[in-house]
Every structure is written in structure tokens, then in C-alpha cells.
């Protein structure tokens, strides 16, 4: 269920084809005959300047989307269980969006994508139809040393992706680390309902609902382990800025998705110089 690292035989996803509109937009971002080009970016001014200071030049805003029909799976009323079909659907849809964003970056000749955002929005034209969107700023190394690897591309030969802010990206590179890829894991889980007798027995008492505790613990563990498996497949030293999100997506109070996401990193060099933080006093009231 890790998507990028587990595929059924013969089911590896093909390289995404970009639409004609996307190709025209990307062509406008490439250098013209005079060597000039214009970039687009959703980085803030401070983020843009710090990314430039880190030795990277923004090329353009890249995006990928997938409108996906999420099927259904019935969970037993009294049983804690993962809804594996829904877990796979939520992962595959995000992966489609990510791969299209990466394809746009590759078309620009980018070394990586910074400030990636992954959003999910269920549409009004169907409660089981959702749009998955990945967006970020494609960058190219402009003086930044990739270390012994000799390239900023990850071990899949694709531009690195990272959801770190511009400030965090600058700090990471300056300290001697490089992002590899945005790694993620998903688990859609059905939490068992309490029986009438059990619910009645707990009325007015302070007591742990152990089946609920175990269900939420197991679901988070599955999401985290799948994210970690992606990091190991990349040969990462670690995963930074991990976030663990929980969404019901309109499935009801007893079905929820746990989604783990973070940036896998590798060392650029053996020594790491970490700047000491400095105290800044603002003059505003």
C-alpha cells in the first residue's frame, strides 16, 4: 500500500502525458532565443530570496491534478478494520497528481520542487468524486553543490520534491542536507461501533474505550510505516517535518483517513555546520 514502492506485477504507472495547454504554459517559462525567461512562483518574497541564497533559481509554478472516483467498501459494524480499497484509492489519486507535477518540473529541466502542497477537495457533482492537487515551485541548482552524488535528482532520476518552506529549505541545505522526495502513507480505517450494553455500562464513568484507542493507534501506525517504507526505498537518512493528518472526507463518524507526509533527506557532506540561532527583538508594540 506504499504506492511508489509496491506495485502489482506489470502495473507500474506509465510516465504521465502533459496536456497541450500545460506544454504551452511551460514553453513560456523556458529561456527564449535571447536567453531571457520569466518565472512564476507561489513562494513569498522572503522564501524566494532564501531559495536564491541557497543556490537555486526558481523556474516556474508546476502543478498536477487528478479527479478521482473513490469507490466504497463496507466495514463491519463491530469490527476495527482497514478499508484497504479506500486506502489505495486515496494514495493512488495523490500519486497521480504528484507524478504530473514532477513531469512538468522535468519538462522545465528542474532539479527539484520546493514548497509542495497537496490538497484534496470533494466535489459537489458527486460525494465520491474528489480532486487531488499537487502544486509547488520548480527550481534549478544555480551554484549549489550536490555533494558526492553529483546531482540534485533523487535516486529515481526525477526532480526532488519537498514541502518545506523556503526558510526551512535554506536551513536544510546550508546545514549540509538535501531533500530527496516527499514521502507519504495513507490508511483509511473503520472504527468499530460500541454495542448498546457497552455504551450503557460506560454512562457517567471516566473510562478508556480500549477498542477505540487501539483502532486509532493501529491506523496511525499503518500510515506512518508506509511513509517510512518510502523513505527507506529512497535510501534516505531520515524524514523531516513529518505531519500526521486525519480527515473524515464525509465518510461518516466511524471512518477516517490517517495521512502521514514528510520530506526524506540525504546528507550532502559528512560534516554539518548548523548556525546558532540569533535573538531578534522586534520594535513593534
Which descriptors apply to this entry?
four-stranded antiparallel beta sheet, 8 strands, globular
Describe the protein's architecture and organization.
The protein starts with 19 loop residues before the first helix and ends in an 18-residue tail after the last strand. The protein is built from six helices and eight strands. The chain has helices at residues 20-27, 45-53, 84-107, 166-174, 196-201, 210-233, and strands spanning 56-69, 81-82, 112-122, 129-141, 160-161, 177-190, 238-247, 255-267. Helix 2 (45-53) runs parallel beside helix 4 (166-174).
User: Averaging pLDDT over every residue, what do you get?
Assistant: 83
SSE run:
HHEEHEEEHEHHEE
> Structural class, judged by helices and strands?
alpha+beta
Q: Please state the CA-atom Rg, rounded to the nearest Å.
A: 22 Å
- DSSP summary, beta strand count: 8
Distance between the termini: 51 Å
Uncertain residue ranges: 1-13
Number of helices: 6
Strands ordered across the widest β-sheet:
1-4-3-5
How does the overall form come out from the CA principal axes?
globular
Strand percentage, roughly? 25-35%
Describe the largest sheet.
4 strands, mixed
Helix content range? 25-40%
Which helices and strands, and how do they pair?
Elements: H1 20-27, H2 45-53, E1 56-69, E2 81-82, H3 84-107, E3 112-122, E4 129-141, E5 160-161, H4 166-174, E6 177-190, H5 196-201, H6 210-233, E7 238-247, E8 255-267
Parallel strand pairs: 3-5
Antiparallel strand pairs: 1-4, 2-6, 3-4, 6-8, 7-8
Amino acid at each position: 500500500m506504499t504506492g511508489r514502492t509496491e506495485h502489482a506485477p506489470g502495473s507500474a504507472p506509465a510516465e504521465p502525458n502533459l496536456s497541450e495547454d500545460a506544454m504551452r504554459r511551460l514553453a513560456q517559462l523556458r529561456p527564449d532565443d535571447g536567453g531571457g525567461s520569466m518565472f512564476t512562483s507561489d513562494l513569498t518574497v522572503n522564501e524566494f530570496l532564501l531559495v536564491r541564497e541557497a543556490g537555486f533559481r526558481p523556474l516556474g509554478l508546476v502543478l498536477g491534478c487528478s479527479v478521482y472516483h473513490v469507490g466504497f467498501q463496507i466495514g463491519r459494524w463491530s469490527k476495527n478494520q482497514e478499508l484497504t480499497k479506500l486506502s489505495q484509492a486515496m494514495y493512488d489519486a495523490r500519486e497521480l497528481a504528484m507524478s504530473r507535477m514532477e513531469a512538468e518540473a522535468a519538462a522545465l529541466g528542474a532539479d527539484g520542487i520546493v514548497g509542495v502542497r497537496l490538497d484534496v477537495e470533494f466535489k459537489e457533482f458527486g460525494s465520491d468524486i474528489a480532486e487531488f492537487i499537487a502544486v509547488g515551485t520548480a527550481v534549478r541548482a544555480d551554484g549549489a553543490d550536490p555533494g558526492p552524488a553529483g546531482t540534485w535528482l533523487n535516486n529515481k532520476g526525477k526532480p526532488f520534491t519537498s514541502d518545506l518552506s523556503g526558510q526551512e529549505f535554506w536551513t536544510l541545505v546550508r546545514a549540509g542536507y538535501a531533500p530527496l522526495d516527499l514521502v507519504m502513507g495513507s490508511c483509511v480505517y473503520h472504527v468499530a461501533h460500541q454495542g448498546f450494553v457497552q455504551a450503557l455500562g460506560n454512562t457517567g464513568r471516566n473510562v478508556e474505550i480500549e477498542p477505540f484507542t487501539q483502532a486509532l493507534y493501529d491506523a496511525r501506525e499503518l500510515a506512518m510505516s508506509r511513509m517510512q517504507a518510502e523513505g527507506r526505498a529512497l535510501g534516505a537518512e531520515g524524514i523531516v517535518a513529518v505531519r500526521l493528518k486525519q480527515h473524515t472526507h464525509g465518510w461518516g463518524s466511524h471512518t477516517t483517513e490517517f495521512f502521514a507526509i514528510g520530506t526524506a533527506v540525504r546528507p550532502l557532506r559528512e560534516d554539518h555546520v548548523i548556525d546558532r540561532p540569533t535573538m531578534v527583538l522586534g520594535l513593534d508594540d
